[in-house]
Amino acid sequence: MMNIANEIIAIGVVNFHTTHVVLVFQAAPSGMTSARAAALLSVGIGLISVVLGGVALARATGRLKSGSSLALSVVALLLGFIGISVSGVLLATSAGIGTGGGSLGAIVAFLLSLIGAALGGVAVAGSRRSQSTD
Description:
alpha+beta; single chain
């Protein structure tokens, strides 16, 4: 039997003499849920943090000579912390991987944001060192 809302995929009835076992399988939510969208936003924040942190670190080490790296590194650090907090909230409130709660996206966002914050922090330290030697 199929449910009209497509929540139940299949019902199997197994007869073991007089015992009846009914198996009910529910389909995972398909499409974009609000939690998946929040996880995707957090992944974007983490990715921007990694890119800005990498550019700021390249400027701080002298590989790029186009301007100051302090502002970029602070922005990368702040975006990393924002991404870590948003993905942490998503991980704390989601039901698990495969439930439509954005758990896997939040894990990816947490790792990207952590890398971006680390790059931003190293770039801040490098830019302050380069400013003090000038």
